[in-house]
């Protein structure tokens, strides 16, 4: 028999209330990080490079664009 472990259901971040957000602070795309990202993007033209400079993932930046 295989071990059937129970996994928690993960909701999309947009569905969580702000006070329920337990993500690490460095993964939150707060206004300060958005400013750093946009300034770096204007200079470099690279989403990945600008995301690295703002200390967020490039996926977070693309997700915020939606």
What does this structure look like?
It is a single chain. This protein has 66 residues and is mainly α. Helices cover 45% and strands 0% of the residues. It has 3 helices and no strands. It has helices at residues 31-44, 47-54, 58-65. Helix 1 runs antiparallel to helix 2 (47-54).
Question: How is this fold's topology laid out?
Answer:
Elements: H1 31-44, H2 47-54, H3 58-65
- Contiguous low-pLDDT stretches (5 residues minimum) are none
Query: Based on DSSP secondary structure assignment, what is the total number of beta strands?
Result: 0
Q: Main sheet?
A: none
Question: β content, as a range?
Answer: under 5%
**How would you spell out the order of helices and strands?**
HHH
**Span between termini:** 44 Å
Query: How confident is the prediction overall: mean pLDDT?
Result: 75
Helix content: 40-55%
Would you tell me the structural class of the helices and strands?
Answer: mainly alpha
Radius of gyration: 16 Å
Shape descriptor reads elongated
Number of helices: 3
Record keyword descriptors for this entry.
3 helices, mainly alpha, 66 residues
Give a brief rundown of this model.
The chain is mostly helical.
């Amino acid at each position: 028999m295989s071990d059937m472990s129970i996994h928690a259901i993960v909701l999309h971040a947009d569905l969580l209330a702000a006070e329920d957000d337990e993500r690490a602070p460095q993964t939150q795309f707060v206004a300060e990080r958005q400013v750093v990202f946009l300034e770096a993007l204007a200079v470099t033209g690279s989403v990945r490079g600008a995301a690295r400079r703002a200390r967020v993932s490039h996926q977070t930046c693309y997700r915020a664009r939606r």
